[in-house]
Amino acid sequence: DYIGATMFNPKYGIICALKRATGSKDAGINAAVNEILSFLCTFMPKRKRYPSLQLYALDLKQCMILSRYGNGTAHARSNAVELLTVFVNQRNKFDVSGFDIPVMYKKYADDITLPKTRLPSGVQGRMFILLGTIARYYPDIVGPPQLVQLKRWCFDTIKYQIQDAADIAGQVISGALGCLNNIIYCDNEEAIKRHKQDVESLFTIILTMITKFRDVSRYDPIIEALSLFRDHTDLFSSYLVTYGKALFDSLNYWASHHNNQTYKHGLAAYEQFIRQLLKKEEVDGLRNSLIKISDWFYSDSNVNQQDYARHLPAFIKAYTLFAAELDPIPLELMQTLHKMCDTYILGFIPMSGYHRRNGVFNIQSLFAMLYHKGEGLFRNFLNEFFEKTLITTCTEVKSLDEDDRPAYIDYIYFWKTILNNPQEIKPTKELKDSQIEEEDNEDILDMTLMYRDTAIDESANLSDTLYDAFLLATLKLIKTFNLKLKNVAPDAEDDGESQSIFNSVLNTLKPVNQKDFVLFQNLVDFWCDLLKEVDSKRLLDWVHIISTTIIEQSVVNPLVSGFYKMMSEVMIVCEKRKFFSGCKEYYLQSKSEIKHESRKMPKEYATFLILRDYLKEVWHRLQQFTDDLLASCLRLVLSYPIAFFDLEELITPLEKALRLGITYHPLATISMNSLDKLLDSELGYDINSTFLSRILPCINEYLLVGVVSNSEEEINIKKKKYKIPSAAERKYENVRIKMTSDQLGVAKSTYSGLPDLQLRMMQFLGRLGGKNKQLLLNGEQSVQESGMLAWDPIKRLKLRVPFRNSKVDIYLDEFLPRISKTSKEANESDYHKLYLKIFPVMLRLAIDPDQVARDMFRLLYAQIIHWLTNNAYSENPETMALLTTCLEAACNTDAGLRDYGAECIQEFVKWSIKQTSRSTDAAMNIKSLLKRLYNLMTSPSSTNRFGASLVFNRIYRLFREESVLVHEYTLEILGQLFISLKMSEGDHPSIGTRDQIIQAISHIKRIIRTKVNTFLGENSTRRPFVGADGVDDLTSVVAWAFSESGKTQRTYAKVCMTFFVEFVKYLPGCKSAKYWLSKELTKDNDYYIKVFEADGLNTPSVEDDHRIMTVYTNWIKRLNSTLDGYIWLIERNVLSPYELLLNPNSMLIIAVEYFIRNSPHDVLEEKLNQSVIEKNKILSIYFHISVRLIYFFDLIFKSPEEGQRCYDYMNRVFGDLLYDRNFTNSIAKTLLLPKEISEVIQSDQGNAVTNSGATRIFNIAKDYIVSMHKKISGQFMKTLAGSISLVAFENNANLLLTNETGLGNRSSLIKIIQTIDGLKLIQSLDALDSVCRESHKLNTEYPESSEKFCLALFNQYVRFCQTTQDPLWVQILGSSLVIAFSQPEFSQQHASKLLGFSGPLESLKNSEKLDIFQKHGEYIYNCMALNFKDFSDVLSGHINHPLTSVYFSMFLEYLKANRLSQRKLVFKFTDYVSRFKEFDIVF
């Protein structure tokens, strides 16, 4: 309003200028008037956006009709008439009640016939458009007589002008055609559409224009003719077939014209022509021929296929409209649509932005049409199309002139448009008969050009279906990639695949399949970019499925950063939607030792627990990773920090992210997002000085960087001058479209630049208030100690550095205090103290993000190492200062610094050896190093132990080449590594300490294998194990390793076991490990019992009530180690299981009996809840023993030689133990709830996510149950059935819902899904009937037989199959279906009902049946393949039903597409087909 008031001010504004210019003959003034009018013609149509423009319309109208402008320049007069047209056009929403339209029409109707000398052609053309506009929007003013006269003027003018193509007045013809275009909308007795002669004349004019005027220099008349044909193609429908060839050739020519405006109008007209042809009922033959033509167009044999790509959008739209009229859509037409869409995707990148957009919206229209035809048909088309498109999206675009680039940058516009809610497009009649609201934005296409007849459904179901199909295709594609890595080092241990965490510090890991890695990396980047652009509300329903899939793959491939990136984007969406709101509070309350008012479990709590364990593991891995892996993990940890981490846990990730963010701004942006959240008053975080003293110095590094301000940058950028559109540009602005960056595939950044980051950091400091002083302090350091006080604020000490082209002044005042202090304290012999302070700084600079500093100081440090390793005597202070600094770096928590520190020590050892004479007893510097490594290996700090092992792994190749060092130190190093491993039992496995130590031990083992004879003999210089003087040769080391195998530190014990088994065969006269043990047993009959039981399996005494917690914890740990030890011996055939059971001195079975019959709650009672930490640890070990105990019994009962004897003995002597209800309850819970058991086991940090998966736990229970079933143990199966029923009811995990209270609780659904595989196993063993009977006893509403249970499952499916959209519910219903149809004879009775040929689903429409079939297709295909005889009978009985062929073709396509992953189904189907030849007769 303010701008308008200023612009049109009556004293000095535009209106004043126009009035004063009246009558002026000055060329400059007339030129200014023309510019003003051109500007107004562009600005005034914005009336619908700026209503205040209405205030000035009447004054401007009076200026336009002043007679003086009739004598002005032709351009000014033309612009004046155009401005009047803007006012009278009702689409611009001007109130013209004061305009006196009848007088205006009469005036210009009289003027339009003036001679050429008085009426220039441009003005006459504009007058035609003005008169046509008035006739269209004011039919009461332009009656039939006036309309007849106006038509005659237009037709006569055009016919006269087109007589000679070389001398036509293009502006007059385009104006007359524009007038006729408006007149066609009139609806009185003289309207063109009511007079066949007028329609024929108009068509003849258009045909003449587009066929004979190809050589004209100005294209305005052609454009107007094409526009008229495009807008009213249906008016000429009777002529299209007759003149089809001429129209096709001409429209095809203009649709590929070099002129931008012409080809866009030509393309739109060509599209309307094709559509109209396909709509005509009398040209069925033409439709078929067009389908054949399209098959040839987009076949590989067509060498001109690329030339036809621009017509693809038109063909897709035309065929969509054609298919919309058919029910059902023929298979040939569906194949044609598939082929066209696939060809469009493959040719997407070379297309212009204009064609890209047309094609995307046409495909969107196709989706809407297929969705209305039936969700099943739509899903079938969509799944196949999305899978192909997603693979194409992940490929690389190859170019001759440029490097390969990812294709997803171009395709992201396609996906974003498809997955976001479709735009609403009004149908033709509404556009023609109503006032059209247009957005005044030059970047938005006038949708009436291409989508007037298409109504795109905006229903939530359509959007959800599109999103579901995209996510399914993505998850399916992720699972197909081979992302394994291999170590390509020259002397690597093996040339196979390697995925150990410790390899993350190596630079020798390469992908096994390079192409898969490239595709996956592109998929990850595409996923991260796309989720920021689309509405991710539907993603919340998929969080559990996506998370478990990505975590599964990440566990298998922990060194692949893409999974962390994908998961971080999911977490960002969850954070925005507050998906896990309340979960952390509920978790803390459940783990708290203080009683609180109970909260209701959040519905996403099960997913929260899975992600929490995974994120905690990733948090620990931050110490190992560098570069992209570190950045990806930091991004994940900080994506939703407040839901999973405490304030103290966030310090390290924030610190690392801010330091890396200096050169990688996305990490800095994420860090600032997290810091802003932590200051939210609603969260109640206490931002203390400890937190700020570590975070704010990182922020300070950003504020010290000088950047050019935005204002300074703008000074050097020349602003683009605004150009007023010309008359032609205004006329055709609906096709002169500026393509957006999305449509053109231009990548854009969503992260802040350095200036914006600095601004955010300053705002953050401001919000801290007085706490921001920690920016300058180091922890609790005082102001005086921190060096914040300056000697003199004025810089006085200047050093001038003369360069060739300039002189640089460097001020040294800031260094004076430090120089003075150092000079005062140091003396000539204390340089090593100075080195201890200088070297660490140099190391930091050597890993600085700045490439210049990094290269400079890495070279300098290498030179220092070469210099100081040439020392003349041992323990030289300067050399030891260098060594100490490198060791401290190698033991740092910063992975980059740690890696470089180990690299420096490797260089240190290399040059120490190189500069030492071979006559000496090896390098003395290496002895100094080993002495320090021993101290670090036995340090209480896990970081020091990690660093020590890392250093040895780096210097191992140099160490093994020095025979003197090998002979003297190998066994001593081995002993120190074993001690270090034993001390690392309490370290979190994700830190990697144990992995590094085990790798170091494997290097020592390789040395021993190579020089085994050396270590079997005596050597006076060999150093024994520290603390074990007798362990000084291989024989004693092997015996020592066996004796240590019974220790409660399980990783340590397993490494000792492995060492024993590998090297016992090298001992003289020893045939095997079993032979060695038998020899030891001749000396001591209880040898292995003393090693593995160690008098610790006696039943824990409960007399001492105060120590019962400690006593029970030690006992359960001992039982765990004993059970593991015996399993290990039996697995390797070292110990006879029957001999173990019969040994009278073994307490194992008695301890197992006590364990089974007394749970921790029974023994400890209330004391178990006194300490949450101890409770979690005890329960974790308890459940681990429960699972291992099942495995132990299965192992001994399956022993090839003694299995039956073991079973008979246990059944005879301890039969009540095998069938004890507590034991079968444990088996049932392991079978039904393996994921829950796995989570409890993993709650103790000694059990990593990667070591106790749900699948392995389930298989242990499965194998034992199958084994017992084969032994015809009826009592066991009966007891197990009762336990399964009890576990299912107690945990609310019944697959059959007796009430609907848990329908919306995802945690309950996730728990139910766990039980499915267990129920399938029970059913396969014919025990489902027993389970149902036992369940009926617990709840009378539950079916009492397996037949009734399966029928109830099927009825549950029928009840919910049509309405449910939740992916978890689809999985439950589909799995229920598989269980029901796995019941004998069930498919004979219900196959027809499942397919909708009978029963409750029979009343549904075919499209609705197909929707259900497609939604649950994976499970229905399973039922069909396993029971194909029954289903083939049903299909053959309904051979004429339209759905029969659809069902069968979809079934075959599924088997073909999944022939590898579903081998069992393919075998069942092909086996039936091969046995029954009559199958070929039926189908």
Average of per-residue pLDDT values? 79
Rounded to the nearest angstrom, the radius of gyration is 41 Å
Based on DSSP secondary structure assignment, what is the total number of beta strands? 6
- The quaternary state of the protein chains shown equals single chain
Q: Which overall shape is indicated by the principal axes computed on the Cα atoms?
A: globular
Strands side by side in the biggest sheet? 1-2
Strand content: under 5%
Structural class: mainly alpha
Q: CA-to-CA gap between the ends?
A: 75 Å
How helical, in percent, are the residues? Answer: 55-70%
The main pleated sheet reads as: 2 strands, antiparallel
Uncertain stretches: 422-458, 494-505, 708-719, 779-786, 918-922, 1247-1251, 1479-1483
Helix tally?
73
Describe the fold and architecture:
There is one protein chain. The chain has 1483 residues and is mostly helical. Helix content is 63%, strand content 1%. The strands form three sheets. Strands 1-2 form a two-stranded antiparallel ribbon. A two-stranded antiparallel sheet has the order 3-4. A two-stranded antiparallel ribbon has the order 5-6. Strand 1 (396-397) and strand 2 (405-406) form a beta hairpin. Helix 26 (561-577) packs parallel to helix 29, helix 39 runs parallel beside helix 41 and helix 59 (1221-1232) crosses helix 61 (1254-1270). The longest helix has 26 residues, at 1172-1197. Residues 422-458, 494-505, 708-719, 779-786, 918-922, 1247-1251 and 1479-1483 have low confidence and may be disordered.
